[in-house]
Amino acid sequence: MKVAKTQHVLPDDLLKEIQKYVQGESIYIPKLKSSYQKWGSRSGGRKRIEERNARIREAFKNGCRVDRLAEDYFLSPETIKKIVYSK
After folding, report:
1. CB 22 within 8 A of CB 29
2. Residues 21-78 pLDDT 10s
3. Residue at 17 is within a domain
4. Residue 20: inside a domain, yes or no?
5. Residue of 1, 31, 54, 65 with fewest CB within 10 Å of its CB?
6. DSSP string of the chain?
């Protein structure tokens, strides 16, 4: 979470109005729902996991066993099963 000084961000009139309700305390102003992004979409983490999962599914389809995939990808066998049996 980024912190900004209100006097640099808000107009004076709005700052004075907020000070009627809150003085000397921190407040959180949430983002608009329309500006939310899915986890990992900015960092590329989501894409890397999707690519890893595609490789796991392909290896399973080509006969690689669940326990071997778990060992190769440092995941539990249960996680590998979730990946290969999900749609």
Report:
1. no
2. 999 888 888 888 888 888 888 899 999 999 999 999 999 999 999 999 999 999 999 9
3. no
4. no
5. 1
6. -----HHHHS-HHHHHHHHTT-SSS----PPPGGG---TTTTTSHHHHHHHHHHHHHHHHHTT--HHHHHHHHT--HHHHHHHHH--
